[in-house]
Amino acid sequence: MATMADVARRAGVSIATVSHVLNSTRPVLPVTRQAVLDAIDELGYTPNTLARSLVTSRTRSIGLAVSAISNPYFTEILQGVEAGALEHGYGLLIADPHDDPGHESKAVRLLHERRVDGMIIAPSATPDALLHYLGQHDVPTVFLDRLLHAPAGSGFLYDQVCSENTAPMASLVTHLAERGHRRIGLVAGLPGLSTTTERITGYRHGLARAGLPYDERLVAHGNSRAEAAEEATHRLLSLGAPPDGLVTADNAMTVGALRALRDRGVSVPGDLALCCFDDFSWADLFTPRLTVIAQPSKETGATAVRLLLERLASPHLECRTVRLPSAFVHRTSCGCPEGVAHTESPESGIPRKGPES
Hints:
six-stranded parallel sheet, alpha/beta
């Protein structure tokens, strides 16, 4: 098995130069770097990552803790995280906290025990134990998708990245109101998550913009899961005056809502118009095709990696919260005919995508 010394001899450089090329610890002339890379390729040299981590105290690995990895939204985030990590020579260790605070603490502890250099986490609704552990062990961390709001002077030292939620949700409600719907229901996410709070706020803003009253009976929590969303949709449809329009607050809950509508024989958009937060690859395979808010999921994952690597390089940076714009994808479940464009009011700031072919 080839060693670093063998690579150095073949390339005609010192062992230290080979180390600098492998670890990016010092600039190396392009011609010298290429000679080292050629020697590595010719000899089939494989760096000893474990030994290197003992010297550098870095494993060049990132821990990713997100719930419901099977959810298409988080699957695409995972793709963005993985691409960003590999681009910079980092590996990825993944855990699913299941949106449970106890499981979350165990998952993060196990990732930390595997000596990841930093973590990217979509926190649960009650992350107190998580924050205690991260603070106690000074773990470089970026929070993803779900924001945590800490009071001033609390020592909160974490970067965060998420999509815009409030204005995009308002745009869905406004669009349904413009179509003539007056009882617009919402299947909301798990209470306590920032995404849930912000999307409910957006729902209320959309109603107010349309001059419609807020009726708490038209809001049912699907807890960010398909099964709970199915039950929540049944509850809304069982009201004495059921909704004539419905917004679902993420793609897992959209699946549950569609099951309930199918079971009750509710025609979309004939009996009830439907708009959804989150796009997914088969949203336009339904009849009708789903009008949605598309989040920049892969970009969110890649941005989280960038923020984490910048934090690792400069631990004393000011903490940053990055908001990424979402896009209104106009299809037909809202009741609009195929090919008809919709123009949102300017204050929403929502990028538009027309009907997809």
